[in-house]
Amino acid sequence: MAREGGRRKPRRGLSTKSLMQHTEPHQIPDDDTLRESPPPLAAPLPRPPRWPYLSYREAILMSVAFLVFQVVLGALIGIVIVAVGLAFGVSPEQNPVMANPAVFMVANVWAVLPLLVWGWVRSGQRVREAFALRAFPWAVLPALVFMGIGASLLMSELDNITRRFIPLPSLFPEMFDSLFSSPLLGFFIVVIMAPLTEEPLFRGIILGGLRRQHGTAGSCIVSALLFALIHLNPPQLLPAFLLGLLLAGIQLRTGSLWPCVWMHAVINFVPLGAFGLVSDQLPGLTTAPEAGLFHPLWLDALALSLFLAGVVSFCAATRVRPSSASGPAQERQQRD
């Protein structure tokens, strides 16, 4: 350190001119090098995903995991109920909680929740984008009511036809009787909980994720097929598959998941409302499945008319299509 007047003076930094004077000519960086060199504290680039989001294999594994989680959680809840009942001297056959549909509701919610969280994290998107929770024109709701009533009645008749070739397993009538043993709780499970758990998984995570990696047509078919298979009801396989295609089309048309939830709720409400609101027996609708009856022709004609009217109204209400989930080309362009 230099001294002036007995005091130390701090050494000043070298200027650009001095730096160039004390540097060999071949060590002086040119202008291009200075412009291309990154700043020392630049944020690191985001790491690319380890595998494409979402592959067909991954979508299948998520659907299988959904079923496995339901079975495992249902079994664990059943064991706890039996153990508590035995502690109070109640046998499993006499335990009323065992047949309570709330057990199914709890197992269903906790089975789908980890899959939704995992799919959201894997997508790398915000919740609104990962689940397509976008705004939509409210004018579509009345159209979806007509479409949903008609689709539910047509699906019921198609289910009657398929049961002629594929018998209904004996387990399902018992499950339906247990599910609707409490009308209010059955309504909550079928009309509210089922759409709110199944739609985010199949029309949110799976359909949206597949479209980022594959074509729209293949993504709709695969998501609809997986949606049909998780119901484990052989006669319902074809109706549920067609319903999955219809709901996928609604999600693509509106760009939002909420109309799918609304449509799913209307479809599930129709058979439940028919049992509770219609006093007369309607063949093929309110009769027992093992009866093997079909709808009256006037009911099928009414169902087709309502469905077509709903489709026309829906297309008119969504004529100006909002921006929907981005397809593979747009996603690749954004990543590049």
Helix proportion of residues, in percent?
55-70%
- Biggest pleated-sheet summary: 2 strands, antiparallel
Which secondary-structure class do the elements indicate? mainly alpha
Question: Per DSSP, what share of the residues sits in E-state strands of 2 or more residues?
Answer: under 5%
Radius of gyration (CA) equals: 30 Å
Strand order of the largest sheet: 1-2
Q: Quick one: overall form?
A: globular
Distance between the ends: 53 Å
Low-confidence stretches are 45-49, 321-336
The ordered H/E elements are: EEHHHHHHHHHHHHH
**Count of runs of 4 or more consecutive helical residues:** 13
Overall pLDDT = 81
Strand tally: 2
Q: What's the topology here?
A:
Elements: E1 3-4, E2 7-8, H1 16-21, H2 31-36, H3 56-87, H4 102-123, H5 127-130, H6 140-165, H7 171-179, H8 183-213, H9 216-229, H10 237-254, H11 258-277, H12 297-317, H13 328-335
Antiparallel strand pairs: 1-2
